[in-house]
């Protein structure tokens, strides 16, 4: 009886771990033919989209949404319907401001903002209390928000592709010792 209970427990743990870490990703063309309840990851890669199709908002079980390499400059408030979202890839779009609509995605763990023209991250980013990783590669962030100091789950920041001065880099490395921060070689400048 103990062996059966142990096997059941191991299967439960394995299933939980697998379901949390891997999701079969579907292109929108395939995902829209499936039941919204059965789709956990959708990719709109390399398109010319400026907004999401309205029918996607019925896919409220999404854990991962990848809209990288498109033409987005704004997000609809409806993005908040994806309250289960853990991974959001907004990389290589046309954002010039941080999309504040995502601040209600309270389960978000990974955020990709790389290769956008965002220069300021709001202090309200600390509302993303589960955020573990933020990719800012080649995104000209002028200054990290002080809110990063309060974000104890944050473990990784990629800030390569934009040059900052040694003082700036040293300050943030010392202020955020629990976070791996990737910077390029510092410039001989104030920032």
What does this protein look like?
The protein has 191 residues and is of the alpha/beta class. The chain has one domain (22-182): Alpha-Beta Horseshoe (Leucine-rich repeat, LRR (right-handed beta-alpha superhelix)), CATH 3.80.10. 18% of the residues lie in helices and 13% in strands. It contains three helices and eight strands, in the order αβαββββββαβ. The chain has an eight-stranded parallel beta sheet with strand order 1-2-3-4-5-6-7-8. α2 (28-31) links the parallel β1 (25-27) and β2 (41-43). The radius of gyration is 19 Å and the shape is elongated. The N and C termini lie far apart (65 Å). The model is unreliable at 5-20 (pLDDT under 50).
Which residues form runs of ≥5 with pLDDT under 50?
5-20
**In CATH terms, what is the architecture?**
Alpha-Beta Horseshoe
Report the top-level CATH class. Answer: Alpha Beta
pLDDT average, as an integer? 90
Instruction: Work out the helicity level.
Output: 10-25%
The rounded Rg comes to 19 Å
CATH homolog superfamily: Ribonuclease Inhibitor
Number of domains: 1
- SS content category: alpha/beta
The counted number of beta strands is 8
Distance between the termini: 65 Å
Q: Which overall shape is indicated by the principal axes computed on the Cα atoms?
A: elongated
Number of helices: 3
CATH topology: Leucine-rich repeat, LRR (right-handed beta-alpha superhelix)
User: Biggest β-sheet: count, sense, barrel?
Assistant: 8 strands, parallel
The fraction of residues in strands falls at 5-15%
Q: List the secondary-structure elements in sequence, H or E.
A: HEHEEEEEEHE
Strand order of the largest sheet: 1-2-3-4-5-6-7-8
């Amino acid at each position: 009886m103990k062996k059966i209970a142990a096997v059941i427990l191991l299967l439960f743990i394995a299933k939980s771990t697998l379901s949390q870490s891997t999701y079969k990703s579907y292109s929108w063309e395939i995902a829209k033919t499936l039941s919204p309840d059965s789709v956990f990851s959708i990719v709109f890669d390399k398109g010319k989209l400026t907004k999401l199709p309205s029918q996607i908002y019925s896919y409220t079980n999404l854990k991962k949404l990848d809209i990288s390499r498109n033409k987005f400059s704004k997000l609809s408030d409806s993005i908040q319907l994806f309250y289960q979202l853990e991974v959001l890839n907004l990389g290589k779009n046309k954002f010039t401001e941080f999309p504040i609509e995502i601040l209600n995605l309270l389960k978000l763990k990974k955020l990709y903002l790389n290769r956008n023209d965002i220069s300021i991250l709001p202090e309200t980013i600390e509302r993303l209390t589960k955020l573990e990783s933020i990719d800012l590669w080649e995104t000209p962030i002028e200054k990290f928000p002080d809110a990063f100091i309060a974000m104890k789950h944050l473990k990784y920041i990629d800030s390569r592709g934009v040059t900052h001065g040694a003082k700036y880099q040293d300050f943030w490395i010392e202020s955020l010792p629990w976070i791996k921060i990737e910077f390029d070689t510092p410039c001989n400048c104030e920032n």
